[in-house]
Write a structure and sequence with these properties.
alpha+beta, three-stranded antiparallel beta sheet, 3 helices, 3 strands, rod-shaped
């Protein structure tokens, strides 16, 4: 006995963005026959397609992983894992790189003679304000989540580095 059914599914998954923009998202699907009387039957997964993936320009779709340890999927159960990996190039060049470059500019203050302490502090404070303004203007390019991402931590480290340089000049 053979039966063939085709399903059109819309699935939702909450993305964990702690590693943003270096995140990999995994969607786990487990399909099982609902009635126990079918448990002796095998469930077979034919090739499936993911629609709308071409619209995800900042993501790479990795080949889906199918749990095929048991040929024919006995017990009427099959597991599939769909994996998306973000392309971080844009964020590295335009956010990480730029704020790192600005932070590095804060070290220029050490080239100013020691007797011109106010000029040293002025340079560092100007760079610090530039970094803070940059952080505020780029907030629209990042996901709005209630926890810190890798990008947030990088920006904080850069701001605290400049603050430390300013304190070092002030002492």
């Amino acid at each position: 006995v053979y039966t063939h059914r085709m399903y059109d599914l819309v699935l939702h998954e909450v993305f964990d963005l702690h590693a943003f923009p270096f995140d990999i998202q995994r969607l786990h699907l487990t399909m099982q026959l609902s009635k126990k009387k079918f448990n002796h039957c095998g469930l077979r997964l034919l090739p499936f397609e993911l629609r709308g993936v071409h619209q995800l320009v900042e993501w790479d779709l990795l080949p889906p992983r199918v749990n095929d340890r048991h040929a024919g999927f006995p017990n009427g159960k099959v597991a599939v894992q769909v994996v998306l990996r973000r392309r971080p190039g844009y964020y590295i060049r335009n956010l990480f790189g730029m704020i790192l470059m600005l932070t590095t500019c804060g070290f220029i203050s050490f080239c100013i003679p020691r007797d011109e302490m106010t000029t040293r502090i002025e340079v560092v404070v100007a760079v610090m304000f530039t970094v803070i303004a940059f952080m505020f203007t780029t907030v629209g390019f990042t996901p709005k989540v209630g926890y810190s991402t890798t990008l947030d931590q990088h920006q904080r480290i850069c701001a605290f580095t400049l603050f430390g340089i300013a304190l070092l000049h002030g002492v």
